[in-house]
Amino acid sequence: MRRLKWIGGATGLVGIAGVAAGAVLGVVAGDPIDRYFSSNAFCAATCHAMTVTVAEELKASAHWTTKTGVRPECRDCHVSEGLAAAYWDHFVGLRELYAAVIEGIDTVEEFEERRAALADRVRLAMVATDSRNCRTCHLMEAIQPERPRGQKQHEEAREKGITCIVCHYNLVHKEAPLSAAFDEIVSSF
Amino acid sequence: MKMLRRLAAGLGAAVFVMLTGAVASLAGAPGDWSQVPVHTVKLFYPGQSGYDWVRSSDHKRAYSKVIEGDSCASCHEGEQADIGALIVSGERLEPNPIPGKNGSVDLQVQVAYDAENAYFRFQWRTNMNRAGQMHDYMRFDGEKWSFFGGARSDTEVASGEQPPLYEDRLAMMVDDGSVPMFKEQGCWLTCHDGMRDMPDMATKDQVTAHALLGDAGLKESDVRKYLPASRSDEAISWDATRTAEDIAAVKAAGGFADLMQWRAARSNPVGMADDGYVLEYRLNDDGKAPFAWNVDRKTMTPKFMFDAGKVGMKAITVADIGDPTKPYAMIREGNAVPYDPNAGWNADDVLPGRLLSREDATGSAADNGEVMGEWNDSMWTVVWTRKLDTGHPQDDKILAEGKAYTVGFAVHDDNVTTRFHFVGFPVTIGFGAPGDIEATKVP
After folding, report:
1. Distance CA A68, CA A45 (A)
2. Chain B residues touching residue A149 (CB < 8 angstroms)
3. With contact defined as beta carbons under 8 Å apart, do B174 and B257 qualify?
4. What residues contact residue A184 under an 8 Å CB cut-off, 6+ apart?
């Protein structure tokens, strides 16, 4: 046991083992865990209110049926890239679990009451990250709008640094009104 | 003699006007329109994309630009046909799409002027294979008269219960720079929620009870075009009218839009267009317009019937509708005699519910007295003369050489009214001045 003194004895050993096990678990299972909790299978199937609302809206959107067959899942728009950031998003996302389980938000009506606030939170987060999740798939310099309107708008967006969500709100999910804060951002350009 | 009467009837009301000399005064118009450049103005189907929608967040991000005063064309020039096709399909901004309706129309515009007049020549293709010149018709059912037919947006017409019968129209809305943002947003400044066939349409009771628009004021029962300057709230709500004194001050300062409409049924047969303006409502100019009712709408008793001595019949029949050899418009001084209830009326007899008169039209409302349209092979050609200075600045835009004016064009085609028309982004017309269309000066 004397040999274990430098690590604080048996307690320390257990602690290190725990950390090591956690590290191993994190390396081996962290990504799959993140992927599961970011997947459509989880987001759209485990929460009744989301199953019959936003999940169906995604399926009806232009993001679901694409010319090239690219089909984003919930995580592509709503979970950050990188394990640490993703886990932080999942941690923050626990409030949805709290709302569902503790507050009992489980009906469409209860969800709709919160839709505007939820949409606003996502929009503001996208502004804060410069629409980072959009840009993981869409490269601004590679976008070639067909119509003159789109060409002009994208040229202006590049010049002024207008981020994606400022124009492309209410794109995938049912339309939700803009908050005063988001309206101020839109109107600032 | 009978044959001659039938022939006279077949000449139609337009020819009547020619015979009575209404067209002779067109002598100042360019003799050879081929020397005047043709401009194509793309008109498209707007659905419910009115003032409120273009300023709402549904108009993605653009709403803030619209509020700041950006022009519609700055984003949408060149895509009018695409927008029209999308909206007319019912996919967006049109809750009641009309089957078979086209999404856009090319309006060919030629403009000339001399020292006294502006001259316009318009051409556009119609969706129908006949002239849309039947309007507010009345049918006798064997016992009583009732209105017959209507616009294709009407429930009874859409269901097939009534036939589509509504006049074709060409409208010009003109500003001289006095109406803020008109140059950029044109007609979209005048179209609002609460109006007929727009979202949240005001009810008859709401309008008649309104102090300025209703029984105590303009005596209207619906809401029609109005300009933002006539309203007091931020939303420019239909019922938030400014005081009559405030509105009068805006009008006196020229802050109204001149609105002139050539009507295939209600003005063309007497060689005219109407003359109105938009401020707190879509109003007629001072004086008397070329058309009025040919029916007491409470008793549904016609006022005039056709003069059988002139046109060979006291009324047309349902089967005659659309027959170009039969009269289609009632002209007081031309082919009408007072209605005789004992004249022997049969089921399916039809009379126009509107009474036209060139002689009775007076004042500023009669300024467009030289406007003639002809329909041939699914194409309307309208030649329109208007005095540069009508002498009625209180409700007209006075045109002058060296200046440019903003004009919004609209066409009502194939039995429609209200939002179911085609409209264009505003264009500028210069008279000896730069403009999208530069009028050709003629001797």
Report:
1. 26
2. 75-76, 79
3. yes
4. none
Locus of tokens 């060919």: B108
Q: How many other C-beta atoms lie within 10 A of the C-beta of residue B136?
A: 20
Contact state of A147 with B57 under an 8 Å Cβ cutoff: no
Candidates B52, B58, B61: best to mutate against A (most CBs of A within 10 A) is B61
Which among B170, B64, B44, B18 is positioned nearest to B105, based on CA atoms? B44
Chain segment B36-90, per-residue pLDDT in tens: 999 999 999 999 999 999 999 999 989 999 999 999 999 999 999 999 999 999 9
Name the band, by pLDDT with cuts 50, 70 and 90, for residue B214. Answer: very high
What are the tens digits of pLDDT across the range A87-140?
A: 999 998 888 888 888 888 878 899 999 999 999 999 999 999 999 999 999 999
Interface touch A147/B64, C-beta < 8 Å:
no
**B362-389 tens-digit pLDDT:** 999 999 999 999 999 999 999 999 999 9
Q: What is the pLDDT of residue A18?
A: 77
The answer to whether residue B193 scores a pLDDT higher than 50 is: yes
CA distances from B397 to A164, A168, B231, B371 (A): 44, 41, 22, 18
Per CB-CB distance under 8 Å, the chain B contacts of A145 are none
Tokens 């019912």, located at residue = B90
Task: Tell me the pairing of strands B437-438 and B427-431.
Answer: parallel
Rounded Cα distance, B315 and B307, in Å:
9
Residue B26 has pLDDT above 90, yes or no: no
The average pLDDT across B150-169 equals 97
Prediction pTM value? 0.87
Q: Give the separation between CA B79 and CA B66, rounded to whole angstroms.
A: 17
pLDDT of A101: 84
CB within 8 A of A18, min separation 6: which ones?
A: none
Residue of A nearest to B82 (CA): A147
Q: Are the Cβ atoms of A166 and B77 closer than 8 angstroms?
A: no
Q: Tokens for B410, please give them.
A: 């609209």
Q: Say which of B60, B64, B79 has its CB closest to residue A147.
A: B79
Across the interface, whether the CB atoms of B60 and A177 are under 8 A apart is answered no
Name every residue whose Cβ is closer than 8 Å to that of residue A10 and which is 6 or more positions away in sequence: A1, A4
Cross-chain residue pair A167–B58, CB shorter than 8 Å: no
Residues of B in contact with A187 (CB under 8 A): 64, 67
- Please name the residues in contact with A19: beta carbons below 8 A apart, sequence gap of 6 or more: none
Residue B42 per-residue DSSP state: E
Residue B190: name the closest of B212, B166, B211, B174 by CA: B174
